[in-house]
């Protein structure tokens, strides 16, 4: 989960729990992306409640004079308890990126249907109030106001290099895929293990002799392995490892039956490496349909047919266009287009952003808002009032003391005390 603002760029990270030094983090990022990571990194306080939610008003970490464009991952739940300045008032353009199917996970819990109903409407409320544009990685996510569906994720270049090497080996007549099929993912039921075991147990006789290697660690590992053993499934469980590990390059078929993903990164990586991918006919896999090596199934019987098809044939080499579509360059271009950043950055209004923030706010105040803007503003104001009540916050599941930063947080982050900061005046 993070906040990224351009010109200059700020990266706010809350999921990393142990960072020895900022320099080590920057070095790690540079190794991952392959170029100099020339941006600022700062941290904001957060609390964990089945996810990590920010404490206090995180928008204040970016100075108003530098606030231009902000990209917020997971805008739907990170704004549940946001109590501070409205994002669209502080920034010229606010883009939210939705890439987790939280409703699917919630429905699997006790009283999940009721919880999902409430969360669905709260998510719609806060995204309409605080976002200018919302990007959903696939139709597997909740339909939200101001949203469009666009895959803005790419794969690490090292996976594409593996695919290129595989294509070269095949041209030389070498065997690129000496191994059969595998599955890789965190070993929790929601990541497709339930669907995998159900499929294999139902068609154990149809897939006689079929062996599947499973790589993963997780809190449900014991239950998953016990279930497979009871059903006498031909699954070989191995410890989780990086998908780019050399030991995985020789597999020809990646099987991913999950229907809880929004857009599975491992599926994209497997395609980039030139493998067959067998996945469900599900909205989360829509982006992958254009790749000839992606074999989707609509039923359990169809799953068996796709497994046989993959094992009996060789994957097609990726074309230059297909490799590009999987790359971060293509993902960035899609992001620029669908988030309307191209229009924002190239508009005459944007070219004058160097004018003072005061002038910008005056121009906003004299312009006549349309009905939608008035409704959005009303929803934002109502949310601000409700999240200002500690009683209502606690009643809706917030952690005590998260409306503002704690004394320790203020000391660590060198923030002003509440009576000086007085955030309500910044509305």
From TrEMBL:
EC number: 2.4.1.241
Keywords recorded for this protein, A-Z: Chloroplast, Glycosyltransferase, Membrane, Plastid, Plastid outer membrane, Transferase, Transmembrane, Transmembrane helix
Domain of life where this protein originates: Eukaryota
Reaction catalysis annotation: a 1,2-diacyl-3-O-(beta-D-galactosyl)-sn-glycerol + UDP-alpha-D-galactose = a 1,2-diacyl-3-O-[alpha-D-galactosyl-(1->6)-beta-D-galactosyl]-sn-glycerol + UDP + H(+)
Coiled coil ranges: none
GO BP term (any one): galactolipid biosynthetic process
Cited InterPro entries: DGDG1/2, Glyco_trans_1
Compartments in which it is found: Plastid, Chloroplast outer membrane
Pfam families, alphabetized: Glycos_transf_1
Principal location class: plastid
Record's signal peptide: none
Annotated transmembrane regions: 6-29
PANTHER family cross-referenced by the UniProt entry: DIGALACTOSYLDIACYLGLYCEROL SYNTHASE 1, CHLOROPLASTIC, DIGALACTOSYLDIACYLGLYCEROL SYNTHASE 2, CHLOROPLASTIC
Similarity annotation: Belongs to the glycosyltransferase group 1 family. Glycosyltransferase 4 subfamily.
Protein's recorded name: digalactosyldiacylglycerol synthase
Organism: Papaver nudicaule (Iceland poppy)
């Amino acid at each position: 989960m993070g906040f990224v603002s351009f010109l200059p760029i700020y990266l706010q990270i809350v999921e990393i729990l142990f960072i020895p030094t900022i320099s080590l983090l920057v070095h790690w990022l540079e190794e991952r992306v392959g170029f100099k990571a020339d941006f600022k990194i700062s941290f904001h306080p957060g609390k964990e409640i089945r996810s990590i939610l920010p404490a206090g008003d995180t928008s204040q970490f970016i100075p108003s004079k530098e606030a231009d464009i902000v990209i917020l991952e997971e805008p739907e739940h990170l704004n549940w308890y946001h109590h501070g300045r409205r994002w669209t008032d502080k920034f010229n353009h606010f883009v939210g990126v939705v890439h987790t199917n939280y409703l699917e996970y919630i429905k699997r819990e006790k009283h999940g249907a009721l919880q999902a109903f409430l969360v669905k409407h709260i998510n719609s409320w806060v995204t309409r109030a605080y976002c200018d544009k919302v990007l959903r990685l696939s139709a597997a996510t909740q339909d939200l106001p101001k949203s469009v569906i666009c895959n803005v994720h790419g794969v690490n270049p090292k996976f594409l290099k593996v695919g290129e090497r595989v294509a070269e080996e095949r041209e030389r007549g070498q065997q690129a895929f000496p191994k059969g099929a595998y599955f890789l993912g965190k070993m929790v039921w929601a990541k497709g293990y339930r669907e995998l075991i159900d499929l294999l147990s139902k068609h154990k006789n149809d897939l006689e002799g079929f062996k599947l290697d499973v790589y993963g660690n997780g809190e449900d590992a014991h239950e998953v392995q016990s279930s497979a053993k009871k059903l006498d499934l031909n699954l070989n469980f191995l410890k989780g490892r990086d998908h780019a590990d050399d030991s995985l390059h020789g597999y020809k078929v990646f099987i991913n039956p999950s229907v809880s993903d929004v857009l599975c990164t491992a599926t994209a990586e497997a395609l980039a490496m030139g493998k067959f991918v067998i996945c469900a006919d599900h909205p989360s896999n829509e982006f992958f349909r254009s790749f000839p090596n992606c074999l989707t199934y609509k039923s359990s019987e169809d799953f068996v047919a796709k497994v046989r098809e993959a094992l009996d044939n060789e994957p097609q080499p990726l074309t230059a266009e297909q490799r590009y579509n999987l790359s971060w360059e293509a993902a960035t271009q899609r992001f620029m287009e669908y988030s309307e950043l191209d229009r924002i950055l190239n508009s005459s209004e944007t070219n004058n952003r160097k004018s003072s923030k005061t002038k910008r706010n005056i121009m906003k105040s004299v312009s006549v808002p349309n009905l939608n803007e008035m409704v959005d503003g009303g929803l934002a104001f109502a949310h601000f009032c409700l999240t200002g009540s500690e009683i209502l916050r606690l009643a809706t599941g917030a952690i005590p003391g998260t409306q503002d930063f704690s004394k320790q947080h203020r000391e660590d982050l060198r923030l002003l005390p509440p009576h000086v900061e007085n955030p309500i005046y910044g509305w």
